[in-house]
Amino acid sequence: MKVYAYAKTIGECEQLNSKTQAVLEVAAIMHDIACPLCREKYGNTNGQYQEIEGVILAEEFLKDSCYFDEFIERVIFLVGHHHTFKDIEGIDYQILIEADYIINADESNYTKENIHNAMKRIFKTETGISLLKSIYKI
Question: Which residues, in sequence order, are CB contacts of 62 under 8 Å at separation 6+?
Answer without folding.
Answer: 72, 75, 76
